[in-house]
Amino acid sequence: MKHSLKTLIMASALIATTACTGVGDTTQHQTTTTTTEVSVQHIRNATVKITYGETTFLVDPMLAGKGAYPGFEGTYNSHLRNPLVDLPMPTEQLLANVDAVIVTHTHLDHWDDAAQQVIPKALPLFVQNEADAKTVRDQGFTDVRVLDQSAEFAGVTLQKTGGQHGEDSVYAVPPVAQMLGEVMGVLFSAPNAKQVYLAGDTVWRPEVEQVLKAEQPEVIILNTGAAVINGFEQAPILMGTSDTLRVHQMLPNASIVAVHMDAVNHMTVSRADLQQFVDTQEISATVRIPADGETLSF
Ligand SMILES: [Zn+2]
């Protein structure tokens, strides 16, 4: 059964041996734990595939070829066309094993025309609220589910997490606030598997800090391109280098997967910039910056 986690569990036996030594007496007991493999495949921009056992979620699909759309008007480097690069694989291959789609918000760089065309209309698709559900249903999708607080899919629990696509100073300008809109993140959990926290298009916020503190996820996907709207150069609308460090400092043992760089016009932090930063900070052991198409296993 493809959708049952029980059959997806890779039986890797962790043998914990405890020796209790008394006088002339040694007792040993063994515990066997099964673990579910978790992998994160970075596709491009914010598009990632997250797999628990054999259940695969496609998050924030932007699937157009290089240069399909004009740059985002009124943003940094808007003369460049989006996406800046091609997908690392054909879309058929990309979609082959996808069981459900998650759209954190409906900005073009997370849910584009190409994705709407090629993703099968009956695939289960999670969105953040009723407004986005209506948008996506109007595009022809038939199994659209609003992630109110949490949901279960094939043995994987999805929890909606909060965030904001810019600082309060940016949201104080009504047309900008309207354009940026609401966003969500998602926390993935399953029995005997590492938790993955996908923060989404958010800046550092109390909501992010709260998830890190309360859940202590082992894997954290951050959108770290520090995108900039013209006129708000001091207040990027995504995390950047210093936020990466801040997350690392809160959870030094967590693996950070940094994405949303080098693929759309308005990013001010590239992978090379971030790599240089993490090298300087000596945190490159826990901050991973995958190439397009690269899969990381946890
Ligand atoms: Zn984005």
From TrEMBL:
InterPro entries: Metallo-B-lactamas, RibonucZ/Hydroxyglut_hydro, UPF0173_UPF0282_UlaG_hydrolase
Pfam families (UniProt xref): Lactamase_B_2
Signal peptide feature range: 1-21
Lineage top rank: taxon: Bacteria
A Gene Ontology molecular function term of the record: hydrolase activity
The keyword Zinc-finger appears for this protein: no
Keywords per UniProt: Hydrolase, Signal
Keyword tRNA-binding attached: no
Stretches assigned to the Metallo-beta-lactamase domain: 56-261
Gene3D superfamilies: Ribonuclease Z/Hydroxyacylglutathione hydrolase-like
Protein name (database record): L-ascorbate metabolism protein UlaG (Beta-lactamase superfamily)
